[in-house]
């Protein structure tokens, strides 16, 4: 007999989960957290607009897979941020959603137990609990918005947002970003295409309409006002793109389109050939460019963890090494601290006037 099913042929299960409002009731904000987020959103905007001359540094693990290790990292970063606050504004990379080139672990929200059980509700709970902890510490957070529904659950705790290289050209991501309250950075494409990131700036500045969920979890049409607090992020492509000539080229492109010449440099990814130790070379080039008078580079991204390197997720999770990345190669905390202190010290003359 002919199988006449016409839908859900490739769907194996469907499960309703907690609503955004219910998750927020479980992990509510207090005054300290709200103060952290307001300051984080406002300061990143001021740096983007050039009103605050400090360099924004988005630094932290490639991905969060262990909430305890992330809390330990956040405590260290908070201390360092107090120390370097005259020239650098440190904001922690707290990335819960990983875009993959093909397949692989997709982050804490998607698979919090790292065993393909994909307990997404538990992932959302762990993510929100961690964000509340970091906000309570007084440290602002940066995250990538990859899934277009999850912002309803956690975005109130995020002060800066990335749209990744694999989704910068996606209309759905641009529409979602047009409604975000934070500054949003768009990466160039994995092949190095910068035009898709520049086009994204124009798209997200406009109001949009799209279908998502509301805080009660009902399907809703979201109408956005458009977000003009946006910028491009140079992450390298077929070749690195942080050098003086590339940066000038992108500044000119932005200027020709009447867009603000504001650029963040990602020291990792294709700019480092995915080798964590190369991030210091990128940082050195940024330092030289700033000292030579560059005013378009306002921010940096660095991938760093408690311990250096990376590891494959083992079958036997008891052999997972604590504080080591399960995605991209990361700098160790001590190297990160040393590198940022040196950078802050070297660019200090720019802040002494
Ligand atoms: O930032 C992390 C990775 O570079 C990104 O998620 C892609 O990873 P993959 O190429 O290993 O899938
Ligand atoms: C996935 C990331 O970067 P990209 O989109 O540049 O590959 C990331 O920053 O974690």
TrEMBL record:
GO molecular function: 3-deoxy-7-phosphoheptulonate synthase activity; identical protein binding
Reaction it catalyzes: D-erythrose 4-phosphate + phosphoenolpyruvate + H2O = 7-phospho-2-dehydro-3-deoxy-D-arabino-heptonate + phosphate
EC number: 2.5.1.54
Assigned keywords, A-Z: Amino-acid biosynthesis, Aromatic amino acid biosynthesis, Transferase
Highest taxon listed in the record's lineage: Bacteria
Pathway(s) where this gene product acts: Metabolic intermediate biosynthesis; chorismate biosynthesis; chorismate from D-erythrose 4-phosphate and phosphoenolpyruvate: step 1/7
Residue ranges of every copy of the DAHP synthetase I/KDSA domain listed in the record: 43-340
UniProt record, GO biological process: amino acid biosynthetic process; aromatic amino acid family biosynthetic process; chorismate biosynthetic process
GO cellular component: cytoplasm
Pfam (any one): DAHP_synth_1
First-level EC class: transferase
Family designation: Belongs to the class-I DAHP synthase family.
Annotated function: Stereospecific condensation of phosphoenolpyruvate (PEP) and D-erythrose-4-phosphate (E4P) giving rise to 3-deoxy-D-arabino-heptulosonate-7-phosphate (DAHP).
Name of the protein described by the UniProt record: Phospho-2-dehydro-3-deoxyheptonate aldolase
